[in-house]
Design brief:
Keywords: Cytoplasm, Exonuclease, Hydrolase, Nuclease. The chain has 438 residues and is an alpha/beta fold. It is 39% helix and 20% strand. α4 runs parallel beside α8 and α5 packs parallel to α6. The longest helix has 44 residues.
Length: 438
Amino acid sequence: MTTFQPAAVPGEAPPADSVAPRDSTAAAPTSIARLNQTIKGFIERWGSIWVEGEITSWNVRAGAIYARLKDLQGSAQISIVIWSSTRGRIPADLKIGDHVVACVKADYYVKGGDFSFQVSAMKHMGLGEQLEKLERLRAQLRSEGLFDPARKKPLPFLPHCIGLITGARSDAEKDVHRNAELRWPQVRFRTEHVTVQGDRSVPEILAALSRLDADPEVDVIVIARGGGDPQTLLGFSDERLVRAVAAAQTPIVSAIGHENDHPLLDDVADLRASTPTDAAKRVVPDVGEQRAIVAQLRSRMTLRLTQRLSHDTAQLEQLRSRPVLRTPERMVETRTQDVWQLVSRGRAISERRIEQGQLRTAELRASLRALSPQATLARGYAIAHTEGGDIVRRASQAPAGTALVVTLEHGSVAATSAGETADARAPEAPDGTSEPGK
């Protein structure tokens, strides 16, 4: 059993009539001052120790910060004091809910009997390990192609409805709504309020993302949160959320924190906005700018149409001024004489060719008639041939009694050869016929 050892208050001698706590009795009790001094002397021998816990209270005063740390596994708590001389050596972003380690030294206030711990150093617990794990996950997802620009979906030019995932009544929600409505007053939102830090944030964001992605009216989804320390933004680097965003069918805009904040959600989202305000400006077009563009395009179109009409009108007038179009009948008149001359020439040539053909035909007919056996027969000659069809050219070819056929100018007659006579030696006609009467 530990016994209390008396400890003198610095600069003050213990009362002469005081009794040490171990020697106190009902008849001779120790004083409260001696008891507190004994307790102070005992705990001062502990020295400085490192403890781990969660900040549950954080009250900033003029000269110090009074806070409480809770055990991570149970309900035990301690009170801590951070004096102004130490505040410059601890992170400025510490707040309720942070997981920290602190170097503390027990302190017992003798006059009031208050027990607390003075903090000489404090830092976020495990942030270095978490950031290292985050970078390993970033490298893995990059190797899988989840950050590939080719897989990112383009945002619609003018979304009919914007899905917004953010904290309830947060500055991020106000910034997105205000800036989007200033740019396009008719913009519509479907907002899903979620917890944006802590253990509940990832499941709630996943559920909200699933609902908005399944809504056919939602054209783009914005996940927005205000700034914060890396510890509070770790939920937006959760692997479950990153893979869900990569698998979503609706384009997703990441608007987490400020420009320097870089959770994994920024890399996998289809568009990374530096702030919620920037997200509102990039999701919807500015109505004033669009009106100016429309007016400029209308002016350019009017100018081009006017120039085209003027050019085409001038070309038409130039064509109409040509003689062939100004008096088109003149072209027909000038060609009429040519056509008449060509027709006359063609008729004369045709008639001459016909006459020449007729003369040539008559000559050929006369020549044919002169050479025709029929013409010889017409002059009184006859052709004798045997029944076998052989023409009789000499009397020796038709002995007496030979049946003959004699062809005349008109028809033929049958005859019988009487044999060779004294006149048989008479000369024959050139074509083999006999002259009449011979």
